[in-house]
Specification:
This protein is of the alpha+beta class. The chain is built from 5 helices and 14 strands. It starts with a strand and ends in an 18-residue tail after the last strand.
Length: about 280
């Protein structure tokens, strides 16, 4: 059976978060619930790739997170606990025509050489872009992308203006760009950096909470923190005929340290699939 960690293991310790975009705002409180003080370390995460595409992102999410932690480690050699975050945006992998935001957090305990990951995906994102022509109205777009509470980026040729968060600044920048008679259109897109995007910031907080829950769950084999779900298995019975459907029946937990796996029935009080999801009742 799964055990919970006593809180004092990390109590009073400091965790170092490498960020340029104030992600500590989303994570500070969750970390405090573990007794951890969060220190921000300014690192140049842009060198690992940016959303607006000036630097191409290389490596997998996990590799990028490790590189971010390495940058913090080099700056604070005495530190033991680290946290890094990485987000990506784009079309949803399964749902057509929907954009999504995936966020992944990595916790690293240097003394234990222990890496704990938490990742989740949401459809709640304002990710969007629009090409506007001279004199074209863009107010509906602004409304759709929740401007000015959410920031924007303007791009025209090699000019990129980021972090636009008020109407005057937006209007004057667009006017300035169109002063050049050769410019036919300007591209506006959503600024997805966490400090310009409260929707994203909130989601990072929720992934942070999942990470904390994972850290608090100890491996039944080696007692290491981070025993968490790595995959789900189908087989939830149909309410009508009892046939095993594609609905989730089991969660598989795995220890990030010793690799021990444990299969457990889901615990969210869902016992049956809807007959509409059943291949027998609804072929
Ligand atoms: Zn273990
Ligand atoms: Zn059925």
């Amino acid at each position: 059976m799964i055990k919970n960690m006593t809180l004092h293991s990390y109590h009073g310790k400091t965790i170092y978060l490498g960020t340029k975009h104030k992600k500590d705002r989303a994570l500070k409180e969750q970390l405090l619930s573990l007794g951890l003080n969060c220190e921000v370390v300014e690192i140049d995460t842009d060198s690992l790739g940016t959303f607006s595409g000036e630097v191409m992102r290389i490596g997998s999410v996990q590799e990028t997170l490790r590189m971010k932690i390495k940058l913090v480690m080099d700056k604070i050699p005495s530190a033991n606990l680290f946290l890094a975050s990485e987000g990506s945006f784009g079309p949803h992998p399964i749902i057509f025509f929907a954009n999504c935001n995936q966020e992944t957090l990595m916790f690293y305990d240097k003394a234990l050489d222990l890496e704990i990951l938490s990742s989740d995906i949401t459809l709640e994102t304002n990710l969007n872009e629009k090409n506007i022509k001279r004199n074209e109205c863009y107010l509906k777009f602004l409304n759709d992308v929740k401007f000015p509470s959410h920031g924007l980026i303007l791009q025209s040729g090699s000019l990129v203006v980021k972090g636009i968060d008020n109407m005057d600044y937006l209007k004057s920048t667009i006017e300035n760009i169109f002063k050049d008679a050769n410019v036919e259109s300007v591209k506006i897109f959503t600024d997805m950096r966490a400090n310009f995007n409260p929707t994203r910031m909130k989601f990072i907080g929720s992934v942070g909470q999942n990470l904390i829950n994972k850290i608090l769950t100890l491996c039944p084999g080696c007692n290491s923190p981070g025993f968490g779900i790595v995959k789900c298995l189908p087989g939830l019975p149909c309410r009508e005929c009892g046939f095993a459907t594609n609905g989730i029946l089991f969660n598989v937990f795995q220890c990030p340290k010793c690799g021990l796996q444990e299969k457990q029935k889901r615990t969210d009080q869902v016992f049956y699939s809807d007959p509409a999801e059943c291949d027998m009742c609804n072929p």
